[in-house]
Known about the structure:
The chain has 10 helices and 8 strands. The longest helix is centred in the middle third of the chain and has 19 residues, at about 90-110. It has one domain (about 5-215): Rossmann fold (3-Layer(aba) Sandwich). About 35% of the residues are buried. α6 packs across α8 (about 135-145). Helices cover about 45% and strands about 20% of the residues.
Amino acid sequence: MKKRTFQGGRDASRVFVDDQLEDAGVVAFDFDGTLTVRDSFTAFLKWRVSGPRYALGMVRLLPAAIAYLGHRNRGRIKAAAVREFLKGLTRNQLEAQARAFAEAEAPRLLRPDAVQAWRRWRQRRAKLVIVSASPDIVVAPFARGLGADALIATDLAYDRDDRVTGGFMGHNCRGPEKVRRLRAMFGEDLRLMAAYGDTSGDREMLQIAEDPGYRVFKERP
């Protein structure tokens, strides 16, 4: 059996290192809307804080939603949601909740045809990486379950007591940031064999891929 270890990386990246994996190039998958049928972060927030508490939180986010119409900065509205629903949680609490969420919801979130494509690339021994704007701590359990070689995502910030502050470490992992982070992890000579995405936030990543796939996965669980 191959040995697989988990390492933390710079710039909010997480690497799953398989020491027997051949260097057959990199294949990048966006997560929300590409591997999944909907936004995983929003689904996670609703799953862990349901009912009146969730509804009240969404009401409190209305000013941030209105402000978004002006600045169009997805990172800012995401940070507002983190402050509203997650601020003060410890890293351990959040990791445990993210694992429970993935175990419960993966069958209803993951697109069957996307998972099939993932497995085909695995058979070709490509390095498979998830590149997502969602918080890495939420996506990590899914990445582990799929056997990803790497996860690049937005990293939440924590205070000295390891509690969520409501901010990010680094930039929101979207648009050009996805390409920058891929090259930071795999080198400037990165060979991106294929990339899959579904929004304008994936455009730059798709542009550097030899085989770009835009909204190619359609199946629902």
